[in-house]
Design brief:
Blueprint: E1 2-11, E2 18-31, E3 37-47, E4 52-64, E5 69-80, E6 86-96, H1 105-109
């Protein structure tokens, strides 16, 4: 389970050329055994020009850099339950493990 909070910048034609919004929600994650692949689904609240609720489904992949850091990528589809719109998203990022790090099988062999 994860909690998400994001600030989004939109490029629009409103005289200022930008607008900002926020998104927050809860996501349930299922990790596929013995791989970096995971799938997820959740609920979100978007607060921007039009505030609305959405459900989402997606998939991601974690690439382990070392015991502490992972590079990740995700693709997701959001279904707006208030207005019927569908949005798509893609993310790339870096994850850092906080606290004590459990040694992986690969690092224990070296």
């Amino acid at each position: 389970m994860r909690f998400e909070l994001a600030k989004t910048r939109y490029d629009i034609n409103n005289g200022n050329d930008t607008d900002y919004g926020t998104r927050f929600g809860l996501v349930g994650i299922y990790k596929v055994d013995d791989s970096g692949l995971y799938v997820f689904t959740g609920v979100k609240r978007f607060n921007n020009v039009n505030s609305y609720n959405a459900v989402n489904v997606g998939a991601g992949y974690n690439y382990q850099i070392n015991d502490r850091y992972f590079f990740y990528s995700e693709v997701v589809i959001y279904g707006d339950v208030n207005n019927g719109y569908t949005d798509k998203g893609i993310k790339f990022g870096l994850k850092d493990a906080f606290g004590d790090v459990k040694k992986t099988a690969a690092s224990e062999q070296t």
